[in-house]
Amino acid sequence: MNRYFYDLHVHSCLSPCADNDNTPNNIAGMATLCGLNIVALTDHNSCKNCPAFFEACRRYGLIPVAGAELTTSEDIHVICLFEELEDAMAFDGELQKHRMLIKNRTDIFGDQLILDGEDNVIATEENFLSNATDISVEDAPKFVERFNGICYPAHIDRQANGIISVLGTFPDTPYFSNVEINRKEKVGEYVSKYHLEDKRVIVSSDAHYLTDLRDKENWFELDDEPYSAALVRKKLFELLRQ
Questions:
Q1: 50-60 vs 85-95: helix axis angle to the nearest 10?
Q2: Is the pTM here over 0.85, yes or no?
Q3: Looking at the DSSP assignment, which residues form a beta bridge with residue 41?
């Protein structure tokens, strides 16, 4: 068993309001400087920069996780993670059918850039990515499980798009075995107040700028023998599914 420092909520330049400097290679480089080992790319309602991120992470010796931050029909943000890149891209293809397509205002929200593994721009997402899909929070777990993924509510300690702020409480259904909190100092308060003792609390940055990435602080203990990035990722997902 070894300790792996993580951040499972990071946005690239594909996400609206994320900085254009948040390229896959820059994220991987900054994560390395921060001492992180496992990083998930979770752009708003898209996985399209995940292939480039996997390529960048291989150069830096990081363990990448493909994901997305789903906006439910209630305007709740849900982190979706996939053990295999291929499953994430299949999820992405299906997710596009559930989006409300509204042209992006680049002057307000940014360019929404899709990059290759060398950080070259290969396309832009023309429609705004952050708005709500037609997938409810009740239906999100089953939708994600179709692609062998897991999901859990993002930044439950925040007013904007947090499940508690939107619903007024933490619901009993659907059941989530994990929750994300943005501010580590709020863990005890939220676990006690909303009776989350049965859940694993994941603390992540929700980084939209390179400077949002935090120095190594939060970790998982994972069995990694015989070592490979694929094995560590597999053990991570086994842990998150418990």
A1: 160
A2: yes
A3: 10, 66
